[in-house]
Design a protein that fits this description.
single chain; alpha/beta; Rossmann fold; 4 domains; eight-stranded mixed sheet
């Protein structure tokens, strides 16, 4: 006997007494009841149910006899399978069935549903409560034990689907036989159970079934694996479903249930009716009131013997029961004085039937003029007539709670979440730590107060961890491990440009375009707006170089103007020299347009000015080279080149070459001009303010044309390098154009490989380097003679000297 279940009988008897003593409900009518036990056997359940319906001791199934008992409704059962078998018979007779054990109503045939009323919430709400509990404590690696039955199959299917949808994994799944008297199970072998026990990661274990499932699991562990009680890895947080009562049988009373210490149990909501404690305390085996269960219950609870009907004692070693024993002194696992959830459901079910019956009688009295307050009238009532009134009942029971059924035939209570702390004597302290209220407002459907929970002593009051893999901290993302469930993963640092500010993210977030992830990649930091400014160390260096070279060029120009009538200045085409020096001066100064914050005007000017001025400079060099070549060719007798000698040729070359570049720049500015832009992608931590070239093709066309002029100048100068040195500067032009071409050839790959403000710095450096090369290679030999060796700056010396 599971002695705790005796309270279910007492709750039924107590409810019947309360109703019979209440003159406001069914006056002059005394309700009675009949109790049957199915012993968890399907065949016996069907047999007993048919016996309840029919008066005959011998009966024929599917045959309705006239000698039926006056049965109005049936309350039961505790276990789903029993309720299911009962419904198979009862729905044929349309007898109301009020179940007080939680089960999945969807497993019942739809034709039976209108005749079944649940005094507890459907299991679907309990499943959601389990998931919310696991999510609250962040338990994602959870073991499952389930009774081996249809309800167990449904539970595993439903809960694993919820697990998958809510980021939870089942570490293992184990079935337990549904036969309460069987102590062996082929599916629970030594190796399998040890495999589960030795998984220190699966600290949370859900046990689904009923009380006998709980007792059987304890039996298996205690008999077959007693060493597990000493194994620290087998210290679990047991989560029990509402069908399970923490109870013991006489055989298990002395056994140790310590490994269930700190259990979290879902329980049917209960409320203590007034007078129930007194009713329990008045139980006495020597009382003349008939109670066929009390004798066995009393002997097993107090481990004593009662005299038989003849007043003789049984031949055993137990002491004689005095009748003065107190139920409140019995351990809670043996018998509980507080009304349990199942007992409260029975108590409420009795009141529901009585109020429905009273409502039906009242209706018949008002509308049919017949009184059903007599036993004779009640005998004529049919069970199917009660359904309409059961569906519409609404009353407050003696515990002060409102009772009604919803559209699905379910009483609308809640699940209490209890924490059970078991003591060495198998008594326990049961504390309500939360509640599942499905019909409450959003945010109030699941309530838990973890501060009230007393965990297993081996956890040292620290919330246990039940995860397959440690959480990935902010800044990292989960990486699935091949061949394992999704709850088992490793952690990788967020990729470049992404961050995570939460734990266990499957994929990191991308920072906004104007931000970048910090070093730990757990947040985004605003990018710094940058450009090549005059205040930067690099900007200061380039500005200093540009101004220095500009000053040198100006000094060289001043020197040549001062010595404009000297042979060396006249011999090298004075006008072209002035034009070249002015263009070089402008080249140095135009590099300053690339410094500072890009604006619309500077973006329009910088590339076009650079292209035009450099074209002018290279055109002057080309004109000087061609002039030298033509001059020497014209010295030959009868040469036709004499007509080309003079300023006309040089001016034509400079003008035409410059106009071509001017035309390219005008097309560029007219079609796709440069404009200020922000580059937010090239640099990770910076937003680069730059001038967008508009048309990249036109930009490289300008550079290409400059390159073409430079190559032509280099080629002509190279071919003229062996002409007499007296009036020939082709050798110096060759060196200058070689340097010029080298700078701009190396510019293209360098420019393309750099980012941000350094691209601008590369272009400025190329401008300064190529301009300085022209200045130094072409004018340094002449300045040396003019300034350092003025005695050589004469026509006679120039004719004699080769330099």
């Amino acid at each position: 006997m599971v002695t705790k279940f005796y309270q279910h009988i007492l709750a039924l008897a107590f409810a019947i007494n309360v109703i019979n003593e209440n003159p406001k409900i069914l006056p002059n009518v005394t309700l009675g009841f009949h109790i049957c036990d199915s012993y968890y056997d399907a065949k016996l359940t069907y047999h007993t149910t048919v016996e309840l319906v029919c008066k005959l001791h011998r009966f024929v199934p599917n045959y309705k006899c006239d000698t039926q008992k006056n049965l109005i409704a049936i309350i039961g059962a505790l276990v789903f399978d029993v309720s299911f078998h009962m419904a198979d018979i009862l729905h044929l007779y349309k007898i109301p069935q009020l179940t007080y054990g939680s089960f999945a109503k969807e497993l019942i045939d739809t034709t039976q549903v209108p005749f079944v009323y649940n005094m507890v919430l459907s299991e679907a709400h309990q499943h959601l409560g389990i998931v919310r509990l696991l999510q609250h404590f962040r338990w994602t690696w959870v073991g499952l034990f389930a009774v081996d039955s249809d309800s167990g199959d449904h539970f595993l299917h439903a809960i694993e689907l919820l697990f998958s949808n809510n980021g939870i994994c089942s570490a293992f799944t184990q079935r337990i036989t549904s036969q309460g008297h069987t102590f062996t199970n082929k599916e629970i072998g030594r190796f399998e159970l040890h495999k589960y026990a030795n998984d220190p990661k699966a600290r949370a274990v859900v046990l689904y079934g009923e009380t006998m499932t709980y007792l059987l699991l304890n039996t298996i562990i205690s008999l077959s694996f007693p060493e597990l009680k000493l194994d620290p890895s087998f210290t679990k947080v047991w989560i029990l479903t509402a069908q399970i009562d923490v109870a013991v049988t006489p055989l298990l009373r002395r056994w140790d249930f310590e490994f269930f210490q700190g259990t979290i149990s879902f329980a049917i909501h209960s409320n203590e009716p007034q007078g129930f404690q007194t009713f329990l305390q008045n139980r006495n085996p020597y009382s003349p009131q008939g109670d066929g269960f009390l004798r066995d219950f009393w002997e097993q609870v107090f481990e004593c013997s009662l005299p038989n009907s003849l007043g003789l004692m049984e031949d055993n070693d137990d002491e004689r029961c005095s009748g003065e024993e107190k139920l409140e002194r019995v351990p809670s696992s043996v018998f509980e004085m507080a009304m349990s959830g199942h007992s409260y459901s029975i108590y409420t079910a009795v009141h529901a039937i009585a109020h429905a019956l009273h409502a039906m009688c009242t209706f018949r009295t008002k509308h049919q003029g017949t009184l059903c307050s007599t036993g004779l009238e009640l005998q004529n009532l049919q069970p199917w007539q009660l359904h309409l009134f059961l569906q519409g009942i609404l009353f407050n029971n003696s515990a002060g709670e409102k009772v009604s059924f919803d559209d699905h035939g379910e009483f609308v209570p809640s699940f209490d979440i209890m924490n059970i702390y078991i003591f060495p004597n198998n008594s326990f302290l049961k504390t309500e730590v939360g509640r599942v209220v499905p019909h409450a407002l959003e945010g109030e459907q699941f309530i838990i107060n973890e501060d009230l929970i007393m965990w297993h002593r081996k956890f040292n009051q620290v919330v246990p961890i039940s995860v397959c893999s440690d959480s990935c901290p902010p800044g990292q993302q989960k990486k699935k491990e091949e061949g394992k469930k999704f709850c088992c993963f490793s952690c990788d640092l967020c990729p470049e440009g992404k961050f995570s500010n939460q734990t266990n993210l499957k994929e990191c977030f991308k920072c906004p375009e104007d931000q970048y992830p910090n070093k730990n990649r757990d947040r985004c930091t605003p990018k710094v707006i940058t450009y090549l400014s005059y205040e930067d160390s690099l900007g200061i260096s380039l500005t200093s170089a540009a101004l220095s070279f500009s000053l040198i060029t100006a000094l060289v120009l001043k020197t040549f103007i001062r010595h404009k009538d000297t042979p060396i200045v006249i011999a090298n085409n004075r006008d072209l020299t002035y034009a070249l020096l002015i263009s070089l001066l402008l080249c140095f100064l135009c590099s300053l347009l690339f410094l500072g914050q890009p604006r619309k005007l500077t973006c329009l000017l910088r590339q076009s000015a650079f292209g035009l001025i450099f074209s002018l400079a290279v055109s002057c060099v080309l004109a000087k080279t061609i002039t030298v070549v033509v001059a020497f060719m014209a010295t030959k007798p009868g040469s036709s080149m004499r007509k080309w000698v003079g300023k006309r040729l040089a001016n034509s070359i400079v003008f035409s070459c410059s106009m071509i570049q001017a035309g390219i720049c005008m097309v560029w500015l007219a079609t796709s001009p440069p404009f200020p832009d922000m580059d937010i992608h090239s640099q990770t931590t910076e937003i680069v303010m730059e001038c967008n070239e508009g048309s990249v093709l036109m930009f490289y066309l300008v550079l290409g044309y400059l390159g073409l002029l430079a190559i032509i100048s280099f080629t002509v100068a190279f071919l003229a390098r062996k002409l007499p040195d007296t009036f020939n500067e082709a050798k110096f032009i060759t060196f200058s154009m070689l340097l010029f071409c080298s700078v701009w050839v190396s510019f293209v790959p360098t420019y393309l490989s750099t980012k941000g403000k350094y691209m601008v710095a590369v272009e400025i450096f190329s401008i300064l380097g190529s301009s300085a090369g022209l200045l130094c290679c072409i004018f340094s030999p002449k300045c040396y003679i003019i300034i350092m060796r003025p005695e050589l700056n004469s026509k006679e010396q120039l004719i004699k000297r080769k330099f």
